Amino acid sequence: MALPGLIPLTADDDGPAHGGDDAAAAAWPDAPRPLLDLSTGINPFGYPLPDLSDAMPCDDAWRRLPQRDAEIRLKQALVRYLDIPADSADTLVLAPGSQILINQVPYLFRPRRVSVLSPTYGEHAPAWRQAGHDVVTVTSLHDFNDFDSILVITNPNNPDGRIVERETLARIAARMRGRNGVLVMDEAFADTLPDIGMAGTVRELPVVVLRSFGKFFGLAGVRLGVLAAAPVAAAHMARRLGPWCVSGPALEIAARAYADAAWIAATRRHLVRAAKNLDTLLKRHGMEVTGGTSLFRYARHDRAAALRERLGARGILVRGFADRPDRLRFGLPADDNSTQRLSHAFKEIMANVDT
């Protein structure tokens, strides 16, 4: 039965494909198990889950509604982690994942022209179109002069790892300030590069920043995202999301993780080493590494689509791109066994890659 007044869905509402989806695994039902999923950019060396039994006096984070004190503790940890002014808590909004923020931020603005620096994460353009905005793609900032529009940049970019330096972003935002423009930054993978973050500029510049907890900390199932924006915009987003939108366990886990400076520093170093090791493996087997971050690598091969299929048949999932059939994205193997499995698969495949 149709519901009166229900807005119809269009083909654009389906959204792009993603890595880490068990539906992708179904494409290779006969592949050996367990699958080795390298199709995401989630840290495989994730933060150890803490014991929450002491999370709250008398009760625990599982049995009560999310508590205001827990939100405050998490925001205080975020202020220190992001290295932003101590009075910045009113610029931060907590959400159940950065994806919901990508979908909700377009509704903070009246319909207007939106420029998306592309190619990039595929959810941005559909989200703005669905909210009624006129979306165009731009492939370079060198010739960008549409400073009265909204400009969406993923930094570092997904999937190629392109980086726009903070000084360049600040100049763009400063030019937008006098022309009613807004710079929207998706910093989902910026935790490995703290010097590029823009969260500290949101009071002075027309900037909205989206951050993801799950990727760097390797706990994507916790579902936590963070928005940083001018206090009025932050309050607007908080109202849209409503109360208790982040679970009590998520608040407690993230507060501890963001405050663990020793783990954060060690993990950043470890990820750099792991990415270099993966580069060595990929190059040894004929891949040209053209980009990425320390959470994923972006590589080229003339037969990339065939490589992805043959890796999948061996139970190894990597990210392919319909619009860039010569590119693949590889997440980091979690251990020596995973690395050896990937290397062994490449040896088998490359011996017959042209057949």
TrEMBL record:
GO MF entries: pyridoxal phosphate binding; threonine-phosphate decarboxylase activity
Cofactor: pyridoxal 5'-phosphate
Keyword terms of this UniProt record: Cobalamin biosynthesis, Lyase, Pyridoxal phosphate
Domain annotation Aminotransferase class I/classII large: ranges: 35-332
Top-level taxon of origin: Bacteria
Its job: Decarboxylates L-threonine-O-3-phosphate to yield (R)-1-amino-2-propanol O-2-phosphate, the precursor for the linkage between the nucleotide loop and the corrin ring in cobalamin.
GO biological process terms, semicolon-separated: cobalamin biosynthetic process
Pathway: Cofactor biosynthesis; adenosylcobalamin biosynthesis
EC number, UniProt record: 4.1.1.81
Keyword Lyase: yes
PANTHER family membership: HISTIDINOL-PHOSPHATE AMINOTRANSFERASE-RELATED, THREONINE-PHOSPHATE DECARBOXYLASE
Enzyme class: lyase
Catalytic activity: O-phospho-L-threonine + H(+) = (R)-1-aminopropan-2-yl phosphate + CO2
Name of the protein described by the UniProt record: threonine-phosphate decarboxylase
